[in-house]
Structure formats: C-alpha cells, structure tokens
Amino acid sequence: MQSTQWKRLGVFAFLDTGPPPIHQKDYVTLVMVHGRGGTADFFSRLLPLAGKLGARVVAINRRDYPGSTPFSEEDRALLFSTTYDTPAASDHADHYMKARAGEFYDFLSQLVKSEELPINSIILAGWSLGTAFVNSFLAYGPSFDLELWGAGLSQHIRRVIAYDPPSLAMGYPFPDGYYFPLNDPPISQEKEVFPSWVTGHYADGDTLETLSLRNALDEPSPTITRMSHEDLASTFHEPPTLLDGSDTVIQKSGVDRGVFSRLREAALFAPQHSEIAWPNVEFRYVCCDRSVWLMPWGIWSFGAEIDQVRKDGKRIRKHSVVRMKGANHCAHWDEPERTLRLLLSDAPSDINVQDVAKL
C-alpha cells in the first residue's frame, strides 16, 4: 500500500499517495478539489486504493482550510467587495476567481516539475462547489500558459472533471419553487439541517415535478449519519461556511454576480470566430443519480445548454457525461473503489457514459 502524507506546495497543503509502487512512465495523477466545508480528508478512502489501480492521488486543501495559506486582508477585502451593490462588484468577483485559478495553475506547474509527471497524465476533479474552482482553472489556464509557460502545462492535463456539482456551482439559475436550506433556516441551524440534506439519498424522477426537494430516503441513511466523530472532525472545517466565511461569500457572489456562469462558458465554449483553447483537454460531467435535487437539475441544465449551443453552431470543448447509478453526493466516501475507477478511467464500464450530443 502506498503511504500517504501531508505535503505543502505553493499555497496548498495536500495529501499525496506518491507514484504507484509499480508504475509505468505514463501513470495517471488524479488531483481532487473539495467542496464547501469539506477538506481533503473527505477523499481519504480513495487514497489507499490508488496503488492497486496503478495511479497517484493528490487531495488539496483549498485556501482557508487546514494547512493551506489563509487569505490575506487584501484577499478578504477583494472577496467582500463582491457583495457590495457597486458596478465593480462583478469585476471583483471575476478577479477573485482568476486569482484562485492562478494558484491551481502554479501548483500543478510545480507538481509537474518537481515530480516529473508524464505528459497527458493529470486529471483535475472538483467535487461539489469545488467544480467552480476547476472551471476557473480551465477558463483561465490557457491565458496563463501563454503568459508564463508556453504550451507546457496544457500538455500534461488530460481531463477536467465536474464531480457531482450542484447547479449553482455551474452557474445555472435555480428553478421556480426550489428549496435550499441555507436560504431557509437561520445560519445557526446549518449544522443540523444542511449536512444531512446534502448527504442523503434521493429517489428523483426525470422532471422538475418529480424531484425530491426536501425529503431523503430513510435507507440508505445520509452519509453524515454513518460517520464517526473522528471522521467528522477531520473531514469538515466550519470557518469558511460561516456567514462571513470565504466559501459562503463566494458561493453567493458567484451566483449573484454571474461569475460561475461566466466561468462555465469560458471553460466549455469558444468565443465567436475562435478555436477552443487547450482542445485536447476533455471536460467530463459526473452526476450521481441519488443526489439531492441540485445535482440532477444541474445535469439537465447542462444538457439543455449543449443542445442549444450546438443549434447555434458554436464550438464546444470535447466532453462527456457520466451517470453514477445508485450513488449520492458522497460516493467517494460510501463507494470509494467504484468512484476512483470512474474518475480515473477514460471509459468507465460500470456506469452509463454518453456524449452530451446524444442527450
């Protein structure tokens, strides 16, 4: 078994299994980015399986999470300026997310150099709210390539994965009549309401009318209810989720200021009369079909958008959709081996994979 240890590179603390014990020169490195309130430890059940599958797994703690560089007063001033009712608020939100993209770009560049990672070997996966951050990397990365590194880093990125993103992280508007507990009870009740709601299993239909907005299935029970106190302490970090926490603020500004939508469009579509930047980098959308309604709503919105963009004749990044049957939002905790195989594979065989054009 590979030993896993905390390391530090640039502004990030991260868990790293290191190269697989017996590996070819072209082994794959999966870089995982956590969501709102989670930590890299939430991916800990994937790590012991990496060597078995001939891969390397790196799990990053984003800024404001344990071991990584806290945001400076200047960073926080920029972030909070996105909440002000000023003409500059949207530009400030864009600038904030571009800075986060630059941090991921620098991290991956240093990882490639220090570890001599093979060409076409990095898969960058953002889970939940983490999708907005990997979308930012894909949106801004090509411009960093031109400014700093030539075509170097793009040669190493195989795929970017949106792993079970909520619709808001992709920048899609909520449907009428939606329920979102963070907008409902006082923020002080989040510990009791939101985690169970978002980690439950849901029997959703194929239409908005048949989505289960509030009530999860009794069995399987929500993932959080089956975690030990020790697991909860290591996998959840509260400060960024508080009312003035960095994830709470950028989640709201990302939606209200339209930045998450702009990141999705820049990552997936070429501007008029332009070619797709980093055309060999695939975008994969992974949807767990027992997740809370935000996730199926997101994949439906994605499919509808792709259909419309194709009708409009716009250029679209190479992409695929993967539906993970029977899994909820915490598949990496409940079904780590199946999840890791899905994230690593170029053509997963135990789930439905379809090109978005066929939706």
UniProtKB/TrEMBL annotation:
Transmembrane segments: none annotated. InterPro entries: AB_hydrolase_1, AB_hydrolase_fold. It comes from the Eukaryota. Gene3D superfamilies: alpha/beta hydrolase. Pfam families: Abhydrolase_6 (PF12697). Residues 30-340 form the AB hydrolase-1 domain. This is Alpha/beta-hydrolase. It comes from Lactarius akahatsu.
